[in-house]
Amino acid sequence: MAFVRVARDGVPVTEAKDVALDANLGKRFTLKTDVVVVGSGAAGSIVAYEMAKAGRDVLVLESGRYYPSSQFTEHLGDTMTKIYQDQVGQVNTTADIIFVQGACVGGSTVIGACVMEEPDDAVLDGWASQYGLENLSAEKFRPYLDGVADQLQIHINEAHEINACAHKVIQGCEKMQFSWKPAQRNVKQCALTGHCLAGCPSDRKMSSLVTHLPWAAAHGARIFSDTEVVRVLTRDGRARGVEARITDPDSGAHVADMQVDADMVVLAAGAIHTPLIMQRSQIEDRSGQLGRNLSIQPFTQVLGKFKEPLYGFRGALVGVQVDEFTRTDGFTIFSGLAEPESLLAQGDMKAGKAHIDFMKNYKYYAGVNAFSTDQGRGYVEWSGDAYSGDKTIHWNPNREEFNNMKASAALAARIFFSGGAEKVYMPTFQNLEVDSVFALDETLDKVDFGLKGMYTFRANSFSPHGTCRMGADPYQAVVAPTGQVYGTAGLFVADSSLIPEPMTAPIQWTVQALAQYVSDQINENAHNYFIG
Description:
- The protein has 532 residues and is α+β, with helices and mostly antiparallel strands.
- The strands form 4 sheets. Strands 3, 5, 11, 12, 13, 14, 17, 18 and 19 form a 9-stranded mixed beta sheet that branches. Strands 1, 2, 7, 8, 9, 10 and 20 form a 7-stranded mixed beta sheet that branches. A two-stranded antiparallel sheet has the order 4-6.
- The longest helix has 20 residues, at 399-418.
- It has 2 domains: 16-138 and 214-294 and 463-524, FAD/NAD(P)-binding domain (3-Layer(bba) Sandwich); 155-187 and 299-373 and 397-453, Cholesterol Oxidase, domain 2 (2-Layer Sandwich), CATH 3.30.410.
- The chain has helices spanning 16-21, 42-53, 76-83, 108-111, 121-131, 138-151, 164-176, 212-218, 270-280, 326-329, 340-346, 352-360, 399-418, 440-444, 508-524, 526-529, and strands spanning 28-38, 58-61, 97-99, 154-156, 180-182, 184-186, 222-224, 227-235, 238-247, 254-267, 299-305, 320-322, 332-335, 365-371, 379-383, 390-394, 423-425, 433-434, 459-461, 491-493.
C-alpha cells in the first residue's frame, strides 16, 4: 500500500460555520458521493476508512460538533455540555436511566472509559447457530477482533495502570476469593490522568478521533460535523442518499439543508439513532423488529469510603474487573471512581452542607461500576414529523432485571467491605448508606421493586444494542448477514444495532469488528452495489 501522510494536528472537518461562510453552498445544496456514512463513532469511522481505502468517494455526516483534542480541558462539566448527547440528558421515559453517548466527531469513542472486552467463542458460535450468522462464528469472526485489537493498541493493564481505587477492589476480591483480572483498554502509553470521560487531551486514547477518521481523511474521505441526517432517500426500493440539516452547535440556528446523492448509505449512528432514522424514513420492515430488542447493559455506581486517602480519581480510570459472576449470572464489576460531575448528573451528590461534606471526603472514596445483564425487551421510537418530532427510549426493568441490578450492587458493596471500607453508598434514589456488611442485607431489603422498578436505582447505560438485529431470517431480523437492510437495496447498518441478543461483555470491540466485517462484505460484492 502506498504511503499516505496523515495531518499531525486534528482532522479536516467541514463545520456549520464553514458552510455558513461558503457562498457557493447557500441555504440548500446537494453533494454527490459513492458512499455516505451516517455517524463518525466506533463503527462509522471504520466503514469510512475501509471504503475510502478501497478507492470509493466517501462522505461522513456527524450530527455532533467537532471538538479536537487540543480543546479538551479534563473538566468533565465542560465536556458534558459540549459533546455528550442531550448534555447527558438522554434518558428513558421515566428518566431514571441515563444513556451516555458521545455527540461529536468520533462519537462515544471520544468520551468512553476505554474498556475493551471480546465476546466468548460460545457467544459467537451461538449467533452462528441461532441466527444463521455463519460468518460470525468464532472461527471466522475472531480474525476481525484480532485486527481491531492491533489497530487500537488494545492491551491488558500493566501494574502501573492499576490505581489505589482498583487495589481496594483487588483486596476485597482476594479476601472473598472472587476471581478478578486486570481490565483491557484501547490506550497507547496512558498518561494516567484519570479523565477518560472528559476526552483525552494527550491523544493516548485510541478513539476514532485519532485513528480511523484521520486515516479515512488521508484517503480522501470528507467529514461534515453539525449535520443531522433526517431521513434516508429511497427510490424504486433502493437507498439513493440522505436528507440532512446543518445546525450551529452553539446558537442552535439553522444554517442549511443538505441533500446527498449516493450509491450507498451506511447507517452507523448507534442503537438509539440508527433505528430512529429508519423510522423517520419509513423504511420497509417486514420483521416488525425495527427499534425493538433494545438491550442496555444497565450499571450502577457504588461508592466505598475508606479510612485512608486513596485519591481514586488519579491514575487509569478503569484498572480491574471482577469476573467471578460474569458467566454464571451476567454480573461484571469494573473499578473506577466517577468524577463529581458524573455523579452530579445522576443526582448522587447531595445538596447544601451534605454536598460540601461529600466533596471534602472525596479523596477517601473508591468506586465501581456494577453491570448486570438485561433481557433485551426495550425499544426506541420516533413520534411526529421527521423534523419536529422526538425520540422516546422505552426501558424499565422487570422484576428479574431489577433483582439482577440489586444483586450486582450488593456484590460490589460486599467487595468494598471486605477491602476495608467503613461505609458504602448504594446507588438508589433513597440515598441509602451502609455502615457495616452486617447491615447490608437489612438495608437492601428497603430497595423494593415498587412501581415496576421505577425510581429505585440511579442507573446508566454505555452500551445500548440490538435495535436493528442481524439475522438470516427476514421475518425475525432487520438486517441480512451481509449488513444490508432487508427490503432496501443499498442501505446498510454497521453499528451496535446489529448485535442479535443481549451481551455481557462491553460492546465497543465487537461493534468495531462488526463494522470491519460489514465493510468487507461491501467491498467483496462491490459490483452489486456501485455503478461503474
